[in-house]
Input
Amino acid sequence: MLKWPPVTAMKLDRSLVQGLPMSRKNAAIVRTAIKGGGLAMRLTTVAIGIETEAQRAFLSGIGCEKGQGDLFSYPLPAGQLRPMLGAARS
Output
């Protein structure tokens, strides 16, 4: 019997996100992965490498639940990140 491992999330690599939304090929792959894979299997979908508002809007519009990338914040040292996380919990 084939069983599904205990997977809860699906990450989309930045190489797929980079060309969005202009790259038809990337858009088709990402749309299929999110709708046919992530949503169908009830996985949290996370896009890596979001750099533009157009990318964020496209991904959000097709059901991608979470994202990370320079659009939201550049990489930060832990000392700068901790105060931000504390403020987010308040």
Observations:
- Residues 3 and 41 are 13 Å apart (CA to CA).
- The longest strand covers residues 44-48.
- The chain has one domain: 9-89.
